[in-house]
Amino acid sequence: MTCPLCGEKDVSTFEIHHITPFSEVEVHEEDNMILLCSNCHSKVTLGDYSEKDILKIKISLIKGKHPFLNKASANVINITDSINKGVITNNLEIKTSKKVIRLHPPADTIASSINHRNYIKYLIDRYHEFKKAEVGNKEMKYGLFYSSIKKQFGSKWDLLSLNKFESLCEYIQYRVNNTILGRNKKKNNVKMYSTFEEFLKK
């Protein structure tokens, strides 16, 4: 298979990228997913490509007009035999002639618990809000913080085990506290975010 972003051929390992972040849509929809090589996926996550850029590629794939590919769909893998070709992803929808297999978030992960997932997303949004006040809208790269979480914990935040929830909260809260806006609010004893317990009561 060919990576639709860089054109690298015979890529054996792909990663699924959610065009609109999964944390926002909370469902794995085929129209919102695209398979990219690991190198391109990292670049997209870091913000080197905009959501609009990736959406254009997705549309060209659906219409069968992408210059790298001859087939209309590069995001559905048709398995016609019993041989595993070695496709590795976080979330995958496989269409066969008989049925559609949907892989849901792994059990006991943050993604599997709506309350835990929503609270982490709330904290991430608070960090982005505080950071944007510091660097400005044009210089804000949302993907950088997601990458820093992945580097710190070794996985995407929503796929971390629930037993890492408290550590993840502390890390994000620490990052919020250490923004310029966060330090100013802390100096003036202004509350910056709700606790998990307070969040659940909203």
TrEMBL record:
GO MF terms, alphabetically ordered = endonuclease activity; nucleic acid binding; zinc ion binding
**Signal peptide start-end:** none
Entry's InterPro entries? HNH, HNH_nuc
Q: Quick check: keyword Coiled coil in the entry? A: no
**Top-rank taxon:** Bacteria
Q: Taking every annotated instance into account, which residue ranges of this chain make up the domain HNH?
A: 3-44
Q: Which UniProt keywords apply?
A: Endonuclease, Hydrolase, Nuclease
Q: What is this protein called?
A: HNH endonuclease domain protein
Task: Tell me the organism.
Answer: Leptospira santarosai str. MOR084
